[in-house]
Specification:
single chain, mainly alpha, 1 helix, 91% helix, rod-shaped
């Protein structure tokens, strides 16, 4: 029976298996694998170059951030200095304004006191004159002496 004769069939299958294995191995080794290796090497180079570019960009970004923070701190310091200078100047200006206002108030007080004193002296002299006139009138009516002859 031919179905049971596996030895001849098996040997021919082994021969063709060996031939196809050698051919497939040769094609893969000399044609396909070099292309795959070239592609992988190209991809590795591409990745390495982008990683190095990324590292450079990260370093640049860090330096820019440091520069920004330095300038920001300088600006904050300058702003606080300007604010403190403005406060000091405002305090000096307000103190000088307060002093000048106090001086003006003192001058007004002195002038008012002088006017009050003058008015008081004038009122007292008017009162004395009126008292003299009243006393003269009273004495002239009581004693019946003329006003011109009475001296007080």
């Amino acid at each position: 029976m031919p179905q049971l004769e596996q030895v001849e069939f098996f040997i021919s299958q082994l021969f063709w298996l060996g031939v196809f294995f050698v051919v497939l191995f040769s094609v893969l080794t000399y044609i396909t694998l070099p292309k795959i290796r070239a592609f992988l090497n190209k991809r590795d180079d591409f990745v390495k170059s982008h990683i190095s570019k990324q590292d450079d960009l990260i370093k640049k970004a860090e330096s820019i951030i440091e520069n920004y923070e330095t300038k920001l701190n300088e600006a904050k310091n300058e702003a606080s200095k300007i604010i403190s200078d403005a406060k000091d100047k405002a305090m000096q200006d307000s103190e000088s304004l307060i002093k000048s206002a106090e001086e003006k108030i003192q001058q007004e007080i002195k002038m008012t006191e002088e006017r009050v004193t003058k008015e008081k002296d004038l009122a007292i002299s008017d009162l004395k004159n009126q008292l003299k006139d009243s006393a003269t009138n009273f004495i002239s009516k009581v004693t019946k002496i003329e006003k011109g002859n009475i001296k007080i």
